[in-house]
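Hi,

I'm pasting everything inline rather than attaching a file, because the server keeps stripping attachments. The sequence lines come first, and each chain or strand is labelled.
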Amino acid sequence: MRGLDDDSLVDLFRGGAADAFEALFARYHRMVFNYAFLMTGDRQAAEDILQDTFIAAARSVPRYEPAGRFRAWLMAICRNRCLALLERFRTRRRLMDESGFELLTPSISSVRAHESLARREELDRLRVHLQELPEASRDALSLYAFDDLSYAEIAQVLGCPINTVKTLIRRARIALAHQLAADHEDLP
Amino acid sequence: MNCPLTDDSLLNYVDGDLPPAQTTAVQEHLAGCPTCRRRLGALEQADALLREAAREDVSAGLLHSARRALSDETGVGHVSEILTLEEAASFLRIEPGDMDEIAAELPVFELAGRYRVRRSKLLEWVAQRERAQTQARLSGELSRQIASGGA
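And the predicted assembly:
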């Protein structure tokens, strides 16, 4: 089954092979989870989005048109969930600000035990900086983070022209570098 | 900052998108400019951290619960079109060991490390076999009638 492409697995799943969808889950769960984590900056939220995305995809498979775009289609489902959640975050933050209560800090921490504390702190700082970027920049950058995704696929997920994607990503990479450089200037 | 290198030029340099002459010029500038070396370092660090952040592992607990939720969604109440050979034997009400011989006559394929067959192909095979048996029986009867008529 490893040799089967995404559309063949979708075809098998449509034919009734439930484990074909399990193979798609095995192939893409990390990408979906990590994109959601980069977008929302909240591990718990990313875990919920991972589950919701695949269940929604399984339900929507009859509407998927096989054209070698399963990955972009799946990531677009994930993105819709991320955007809806970020909107809920914004509403909650506004309500909490008005009420004077403090929001809980999102669970951003990396869990990879083999990494040094300094590296984990760098990654956590990166996640905080990502949240400081405009949403469109963060969105493009969160997809750019995956080596496998081409500009064309990112454009499909975001629903905009490739040149717009390239511009968004360039600006976001520069903005992120400025934030990281400022961190180093602040360090003792 | 008086440096002639813009962020865009530095990014093009990082991405290897500059023509050779400009690449050399950037390298010469970097050699004498600690500020731009730091800017270059920040750009490279941003990319490296981003790629690393995108490779976060999914916890085993989450994987388990997501798989279970997914199998509830995809498995319940579903009549499978694709059967393992054991399921096909059960479908035909024969012993699994007897499937080997039959499997040789079926378009069997491998999926997830197990041999499988489509239910529709299995039904076609059953129908063909029944037709062949009926023909054999009729032709046997005909032969007997001809033989008895000729006697």
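The first helix of chain A runs from residue 6 to 14.

If the labels don't parse on your end, tell me and I'll reformat.
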